[in-house]
Specification:
This protein is of the alpha/beta class and 338 residues long. It contains 13 helices and 11 strands. Bound molecules: NADP nicotinamide-adenine-dinucleotide phosphate (NAP).
Length: 338
C-alpha cells in the first residue's frame, strides 16, 4: 500500500512532521450518533497505514471517553502518532448539555493531568486551548501552557477558534504551532482575520470540519429528519429547516466537479481545502473525521486530486451563499469576536 500513503508536511515552523491530512476522532465517542467501536478502532489503524499521523481528540469529547478510546491505539504506535488534545470547554457530568469555557491556570493544570491520565501517555504532542475565555488575558493562558512545555507534559502549543489578534498576542508569549478552526467550502469566515495572522507567523492551520460536518459529502440533508435525536448537528442553524434545503442546492457545482474527476463531493471539498491553502501560502493539515475504514481511504485519496483554475472559480462563491450560522451561538467562534 506504499503508493497510497499521503505526503508529509511540517506542522508550522519548528513543529512536528505529520501526514498532510490528519484524523478527527471526535465522532468515535461523541456528537454524531451511534458508533461501531470495532470499526472505529480499525479506522485508526487504517489511517496510520495510509500515512495519517496527526490524531485529534479533546477532553470534552464524550466527557473524556474519546481520549480513553484512542489511548490503546496511541500507546501501540507512540513513536508514529502525533497526539493532539484540548482543554477549555468544561462539561459537568451532572449537567452534560451545559458548557462553560475555562482558561484559568488552576483549570488548565487540572485538565492536563486529566488528559494525561485518560490517554495514559507521558506527554501530549500538541495541546490546544479549545475555546477562548474572554475573562482571562490570553497571555496568562499561554503563559500557563508554556509552563507545561517546560515541565515536559506537552511538546507543542495550539489554539482553537482564536482571532488573528488573539493569535498574535499568544505567539508573543510562546511559539504557537497550530491554529485549529473551522474551514471548508461552506465556512470561510477565518480568511478575513485569522488566515493573515497564521501566514505571517508561520503557524500551521488545522481546519476542522473540512467536510462541513459531513454535509458536503451529501450523506445527510436535513439534520432533524436524517440524523438521530442526540446528534449535535441538529443544533446547527445551517442544517435544519429551510436553510438545510437551500444549502443542499449549493452542492450542485461540487457534484459536477466531482463527476469530472470521477471523485466524490467530499473528496472535492477536501481537495479544495488543500489547494486554497496552497494559493494563500499556508501550511495546512485538515482533520476530517470518520469512523469508517473505507471513508478514511476515500478522504486520504483526495490529497492527490488537483482542481483546475476554472473548477476553483466555480467553487469560489459557494460559502457566501450558505444560509445559517455554523453555531447557534456564534460567540463560541472567532468570527463572533472579530
Ligand atoms: N476545535 C473545535 O472546536 C472542533 C470542532 C469540531 C470538530 N473538531 C475536530 O475536527 C474533526 C473533524 O470535524 P467534524 O468531524 O466535525 O466534521 P467533518 O470532518 O467535516 O465531517 C465528519 C462527518 O462526515 C462523515 N464523513 C467523513 N468522511 C466521509 C466520507 N468519505 N463520505 C461520507 N461521509 C463522511 C463522518 O461520518 P462517519 O464518522 O460516520 O464516517 C462525520 O459524520 C473532529 O473529529 C474533531 O476532532 C474540532
Amino acid at each position: 500500500m506504499t503508493d497510497s500513503r499521503i505526503a508529509n508536511v511540517e506542522l508550522g515552523t519548528g513543529g512536528p512532521e505529520v501526514g498532510v491530512q490528519g484524523l478527527g476522532c471526535m465522532g468515535m465517542s461523541f456528537a454524531y450518533g451511534p458508533t461501531d467501536a470495532d470499526e472505529a478502532r480499525a479506522t485508526l489503524e487504517r489511517a496510520l497505514e495510509l500515512g495519517v499521523t496527526l490524531f485529534d481528540t479533546a477532553d470534552m469529547y464524550g466527557l473524556g471517553e474519546n481520549e480513553k478510546f484512542i489511548s490503546p491505539f496511541v500507546k501501540a504506535h507512540r513513536d508514529e502518532v502525533v497526539l493532539a488534545t484540548k482543554f477549555g470547554i468544561f462539561r459537568d457530568t451532572a449537567e452534560p448539555t451545559k458548557r462553560t469555557i475555562r482558561n484559568d491556570t488552576p483549570y488548565i493544570r487540572q485538565a492536563v493531568e486529566g488528559s494525561l491520565r485518560r490517554l495514559d501517555v507521558e506527554v501530549i504532542d500538541l495541546y490546544y486551548m479549545h475555546r477562548r475565555d474572554v475573562n482571562i488575558p490570553i497571555e496568562e493562558t499561554v503563559g500557563t501552557m508554556a509552563e507545561l512545555v517546560r515541565e515536559g507534559k506537552v511538546k507543542h502549543l495550539g489554539l482553537s477558534e482564536v482571532t488573528g489578534g488573539e493569535l498574535r498576542a499568544a505567539h508573543a508569549v510562546h511559539p504557537i504551532a497550530a491554529v485549529q478552526s473551522e474551514w471548508s467550502l461552506f465556512s470561510r469566515d477565518i480568511e478575513a482575520g485569522v488566515v493573515p495572522a497564521v501566514r505571517e507567523l508561520g503557524v500551521a492551520l488545522v481546519p476542522y470540519s473540512p467536510l462541513g460536518r459531513g454535509f458536503l459529502t451529501g450523506s445527510f440533508v436535513n439534520a432533524d429528519q436524517d440524523l438521530t435525536s442526540d446528534d449535535f448537528r441538529r443544533t446547527m442553524p445551517r442544517f435544519t429547516g429551510d436553510n438545510a434545503a437551500a444549502n443542499a442546492a449549493l452542492l450542485e457545482p461540487v457534484r459536477a466537479v466531482a463527476e469530472a474527476h470521477g471523485a466524490s463531493p467530499g473528496q472535492i471539498a477536501l481537495a479544495w481545502v488543500q489547494q486554497q491553502a496552497a494559493l494563500l501560502g499556508l501550511p495546512v493539515v485538515p482533520i476530517p473525521g470518520t469512523r469508517k475504514r473505507t471513508r478514511v481511504e476515500e478522504n486520504t485519496a483526495a490529497t492527490r486530486i488537483v482542481l483546475t483554475e476554472d473548477e476553483l472559480a466555480v467553487l469560489e462563491p459557494i460559502a457566501s451563499k450558505v444560509a445559517g450560522d455554523r453555531y447557534a451561538d456564534m460567540s463560541f467562534s472567532s468570527a463572533g469576536r472579530e
